Recover the amino acids of this structure.
């Protein structure tokens, strides 16, 4: 059973370009979470999605950032008009059930390291 | 501020010694998990402890949870150079949100 897959592993963009980060959850998992990690810091929650639904996007900036998890295909985190401050590692996690009130472990992908020049 | 705060921020020990890391949090939780992150890599899940549990073991790992003090500790016994990594605690709050709250991590260095 393959783990959570993310691609690309490294992404370089110039200021003003768009960044698209992809996440394929573990087989059988229908819950996806995106986190951002700045250098020397812990992970900060961005958004939680189920298939075709955004459940909680409270950690995601209102502008330039969007996320989707379509019925078919991977989850996409999209950052428009990137700025240098967007440089970070972006991690995706998946779980088979929702975390609320439960004890479900989130399994993390290897991350995408975004560098904005 | 972060829900989880680990201390120490950095720890350097000799191979064979034990390493203890602590995590404090602020709100009620369903569970607490510890993850390891090797430099530049993703997170590896180590152990989950539920709010009604006080201690849990997994190989050389021992985790305790004190909900009255809102704190947890991770003990790695007989450390190895391969244990060199950053260790994060993550809490699952009971407040009805779905997100894990991560601390800032303890950077452990095990010297051979």
């Amino acid at each position: 059973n393959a783990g959570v897959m993310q691609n690309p592993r490294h992404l370089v963009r110039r200021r003003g370009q768009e960044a698209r980060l992809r996440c394929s959850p573990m087989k059988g998992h229908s819950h996806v979470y995106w986190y951002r990690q700045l250098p020397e810091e812990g992970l900060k929650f961005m958004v939680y999605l189920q298939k075709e639904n955004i459940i909680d996007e409270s950690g995601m900036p209102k502008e330039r950032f969007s996320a989707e998890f379509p019925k078919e295909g991977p989850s996409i985190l999209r950052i428009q008009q990137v700025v240098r401050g967007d440089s970070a590692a972006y991690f995706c996690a998946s779980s088979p059930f929702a975390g609320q009130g439960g004890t479900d472990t989130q399994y993390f992908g290897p991350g995408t390291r975004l560098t904005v020049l | 501020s972060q829900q989880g705060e680990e201390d120490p921020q950095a720890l350097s020990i000799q191979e064979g010694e034990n390493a203890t890391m602590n995590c404090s949090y602020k709100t009620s939780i369903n569970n607490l998990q510890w993850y390891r992150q090797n430099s530049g890599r993703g997170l590896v899940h180590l152990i989950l402890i539920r709010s009604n549990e006080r201690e849990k073991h997994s190989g050389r790992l021992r985790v305790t949870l004190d909900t009255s003090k809102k704190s947890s500790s991770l003990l790695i016994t007989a450390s190895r150079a391969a244990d060199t990594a950053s260790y994060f605690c993550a809490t699952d709050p009971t407040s009805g949100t779905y997100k894990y709250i991560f601390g800032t991590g303890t950077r452990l260095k095990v010297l051979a």
